[in-house]
Amino acid sequence: MRIRIKYFGWIAEQVNKREEDLELDLNSLNELKDYLKNKNQFQEDSSIRYAVNQELVDDAKLQDNDLVALLPPFAGG
User: Which of the four CATH numbers 3.90.850.10, 3.40.1700.10, 3.40.630.30, 3.10.20.30 does domain 2-71 have?
Assistant: First the structure.
């Protein structure tokens, strides 16, 4: 399955890229979280939010050509 990953803010800086396409055999967002944590060597941070196809989710079933975004906390007013 092909998944496009987009990284934002400090996450993009830490992994040194804004996006990437991956070919993976995964079923869920939680499996992808574990894969990315190990691949990119960053600590799982409970403040990171995940969006699948522009919808914020805690977990989701992944499908071919999904877009997954890793979002750090945002501040503003």
Answer: 3.10.20.30
How many residues make up the chain in this entry? Answer: 77
User: 3-class DSSP state for residue 72?
Assistant: coil
Task: From 66, 36, 37, 69, select the one nearest 51 (Cα to Cα).
Answer: 69
Which residue type, as a one-letter code, is found at position 21? D
**Residue 6 CB neighbour total at 10 angstroms:** 16
Walking along the chain (77 residues) 10 residues at a time, the average pLDDT comes out as: 95 93 95 90 78 96 97 76
Q: What is the pTM of this model?
A: 0.89
